[in-house]
Amino acid sequence: MTQVDAKQDRVNTVIDVLNKARSMELYAVHQYMNQHYTLDDLDYGEFASKIKLISIDEMRHAEEFAERIKELGGEPCHELSAKVVKGQKVTDVFPFNQDVEEDTIETYNKFLKTCRENGDNVSARLFEKILDEEQVHTNYFSDTAAHIETLGQTYLSKIAGSPSPEIPSHGFVNAE
C-alpha cells in the first residue's frame, strides 16, 4: 500500500464515522420534531418548544457533519440511523430522549478517538464541539424526566396549557 493509499484509507475512515454521526443527527431531527408536534397537540407547549429548539440544534449538527464530509471529498448520507418512534406518551418522551442523547455521546466519543487516530484533528474538534451541545440536551432531558418521575401529574399539570412560544427558524425566508 502506498502512502497515498494509506492516507486515503484514513480519510475514508473519518468520512465513514462522520456519515454515521450525520445519520444519527438526521434521526434525532425527525424523532424530536415528531415529539414536538405530538406534545404541541397534547397542549404541552413549553415542552414542545424546547424539543423543537433541540431539533434545530440537531439539524445544525447534521449540516456541520455534511460540510466536513464534503471538505474531505465524501458524499453526505441522507438515511436515518433508526426508525422514528411515534405516539409516545409525555411521560415516555424525556427518558427516551435521554437514552438517545447518552448513546450519541458514547458513540461520538468513539468517533472522536477514530478521527484522532486517523490524523484528523479538525473532525475531532467538530465532535468535541457537538459533544458539548449533546451534553446540554442530555441534561435537559434528564432533569425533565426526573421532574416528571418525582412530581408526576403535579408537574405535568403546571406545564399543560402552557403556550408554545413562536420560535424563529432563521430559515431562508427569514434570513437577514
Give the helix/strand class: mainly alpha
The radius of gyration over CA amounts to 18 Å
Number of helices: 5
Distance between the termini: 50 Å
Specify the CATH class.
Answer: Mainly Alpha
Average pLDDT level = 94
* CATH architecture assignment name: Up-down Bundle
Range of helix content: over 70%
Determine the CATH superfamily.
Ferritin, core subunit, four-helix bundle
Number of strands: 0
Shape: elongated
Report on the architecture of this protein.
The chain has 176 residues and is mainly α. It has one domain: Ferritin, core subunit, four-helix bundle (Ferritin, Up-down Bundle), CATH 1.20.1260. Helices cover 75% and strands 0% of the residues. The chain contains five helices and no strands. The protein has helices at residues 3-41, 45-71, 90-117, 121-151, 153-159. Helix 1 (3-41) packs antiparallel against helix 2 (45-71), helix 1 (3-41) packs antiparallel against helix 3 and helix 2 (45-71) runs antiparallel to helix 4 (121-151). The protein is elongated, with a radius of gyration of 18 Å. The N and C termini lie far apart (50 Å). Fe cation 1 binds at residues 25, 58, 61, 134. Its EC number is 1.16.3.1. This is Bacterioferritin. Heme b binds at residue 59. Keywords: Heme, Iron, Iron storage, Metal-binding.
Q: What is this structure, in a nutshell?
A:
With 176 residues, this protein is mainly α.
Blueprint (SSEs and pairs):
Elements: H1 3-41, H2 45-71, H3 90-117, H4 121-151, H5 153-159
Helix pairs in contact: 1-2, 1-3, 2-4, 3-4
Catalytic activity: 4 Fe(2+) + O2 + 4 H(+) = 4 Fe(3+) + 2 H2O
Organism: Candidatus Bilophila faecipullorum
Domain Ferritin-like diiron: 8-152
